[in-house]
Amino acid sequence: MGSEHFGHALRRLRGDHSLRDLAQLANCGKTHISDLEHGRRNPSEAVAAALDDALEAGGYLRELAAMPSCTGGQLMTDLRAGLLDAIADGLMTKASLEEWVHTVAHYGRMIRYARTWEILPGMLTAFADLAKAVRACHSGPERKRLSQTAAKLAGLISFTLFKRGDPAAGEWSRLGLSAARAAEHPFTMAWVLAQHSYQHYYSGDASSAIQEAALAQETVDGRPCIGSAWAAPLEARAHALLGDRGKAIAALQRAERVFSHLEPEERTESAFGYSEAVMTFHAGNIWTYLHETSRAWSLQQRALELLPQSDRRDRPLVQLDRATCLLQDGDADEATAAATSALAPLSPVHRERLITFRARLLVSTRVTGSHTARQLGMLQDALKHSAQLTATHPIPQCGAERFFTPFTSRA
C-alpha cells in the first residue's frame, strides 16, 4: 500500500461515502476533497488528519500526506520537455561530466534499499540540473555521455514512480529510451529496456515482459552487460510464471552465463549492478514457479544469507517464495507463518508494488477440498492483514492456480 498516492488512498477509503457525507464528517468542503482525490491539490496536515479520523484510517492518510509530493504537475512536464529539447538541439557541456556520472551512480545504489519517497525529490532535482547541463554542452562525445547518464537517471525515476503506482512511470521510461538512443550506447539501451520489462512483469503482463527482456538482450547481441544480466533472469521468471518450463530453463542458463562473465565491480548492490544475492534470489524464484521446491529452497536459503538484514524488498520476496514452496508441498500452516513473517514487519511505506504483486499472487490461489480450502483461507486472511492489500493493483491474470497443482491434487 506504500505505492498509493494520497488521492488514490482517499478515494479507496471513502468507499460508498458521498463527497458530501465525508465533507460533513471531516468538516471541510466537498470540492476540496474532490481536488485531493484527483491530485489537483496537496493535503495540509490538518486536513489530512481530519480525513484520517473521519475514515478511521489509523494514521495512514497522515503518513501519505507527510510524504513529498513532487511526481506530477508542471515540474515533471518541464523536466521531460527540457531534456528532450536539449537532446534535439545537440547542446551539451564537458563541465561536471564525471560529477553527473557519480551522482547517478549514487542514486543507483540508494534505490536498492531506500524508501522511494525519500529519494525521488533528489532525483527530480538532479534531473532538472542535468537538463541544464545538457543544453550547455557542444561536444559530440560528451553530449552522448551525458545522454547516457540522463537515460539512466530517467530509468531510475521511471521505476521509482512505478513502485509508487504513478502512471507517469511510462512517460519517464520513454524518455529514458529517447536519451539512450541519442547516446547511441547499446548497453544503456539494454539496461533501460530491462527496467521497463520489470514494470510489465510486476503489472501482471508476463508476455510483454518477455518481449521487452528479449529485446534488451538482442540490443547487445547477448553480450554480457548489466542490461542483459537483469533481462535474462526476468525473461526466465516470466516464462516460468506462464508455465513454459523449457523456455524458462533456457533463459535461466543464459542468465547464469551472463552473470559468470560480469566483472567483479559489476556485481554490486545497485540498479547499475547485478549481485550474487539478486542472481540467487531470481534463480530461486524461477525454480519456485517450476515446482522444484527442493532446489528452490536451497537457493532461497543462500539468498537470505547474502541479502543484508536491512533489506525491505528482496528478503520479503524470497520469504514469499518460501511460502509458495510450502504450499506446493502441502504445508499451509507453515506457509501462513512464512508469509506473515515476511510481511508483518513492513511498514506501509515499504509495501510497494513489487511486494504487493507477489503477495496478491499468493492470495489469488484457488484450491479444492474443504480442509485445504480452510487452511488457504487462513493464509489469505493473514496475507490481507499483514500486507494490507487493496484493489489498487489488479491481481495478475497469469494462471496463479497452476502453481499449486500438486498441492490441490492431494486435497
Q: Strand pairing plus helix content: what structural class?
A: mainly alpha
For the secondary structure, the number of strands is 0
Shape label: flat
Could you estimate the helical fraction of the residues in percent?
55-70%
N-to-C CA distance: 33 Å
DSSP strand content: under 5%
State the order of secondary-structure elements, H for helix, E for strand. HHHHHHHHHHHHHHHHHHHHH
Report the mean per-residue pLDDT as an integer. Answer: 79
Instruction: Show unreliable segments.
Output: 70-74, 91-95, 366-371, 387-411
Radius of gyration: 22 Å
Q: What does the main sheet amount to?
A: none
Q: Helical segment tally?
A: 21
Could you describe the 3D structure shown?
It is a single chain. The chain has 411 residues and is an all-alpha fold. The chain has helices spanning 6-14, 19-26, 30-37, 45-54, 60-66, 73-89, 97-110, 116-136, 140-164, 169-183, 186-201, 206-219, 226-241, 245-260, 276-289, 293-306, 314-328, 332-343, 353-363, 370-387, 405-409. α17 runs parallel beside α19 (353-363). The longest helix has 25 residues, at 140-164. The two termini are 33 Å apart. The model is unreliable at 70-74, 91-95, 366-371 and 387-411 (pLDDT under 50).
